[in-house]
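Lab notebook page, bench 4
Experiment: in silico fold of construct C2
Operator: M.H.
Input chain length: 118 residues
Purpose: comparison with the prior construct
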Amino acid sequence: MFRSSASRCGRSGSASTQQNAAIGTTTAALAFVRLTTHYYAHAAWLEEGAVIRDAGRLAGIPGVLIYGRLDLSCPVSTAVELAEAWPGAELLVDDHSGHRASDLKRGWKLAALDRFAR
């Protein structure tokens, strides 16, 4: 467990609180990266093609797939294949963004969440 020198000396204050918050954020980010990398390295413990093959089991469960065509980590053909295999799924493709968020994709996400909340 990390403790700053200020907390060991019994001092407290906003600088120490901010430092601990930043370390907490860094720790959470590192944990997320480790977990994501572990799943990626093991293909999420799924057989090759299992997600697409079994997507039909999602019939009746609404889904909106939001994709950036310029995403280099995953070809758009994979998103299309999943949308075709998932009955009732909606695929939205932003031709001008990649993996990161865009205003257009953010709007689509909010609209989808709004629909799901009703």
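Observations: Residues 76 and 114 are 25 Å apart (CA to CA). Residues 1-12 have pLDDT under 50 and may be disordered.
Next step: discuss at group meeting.
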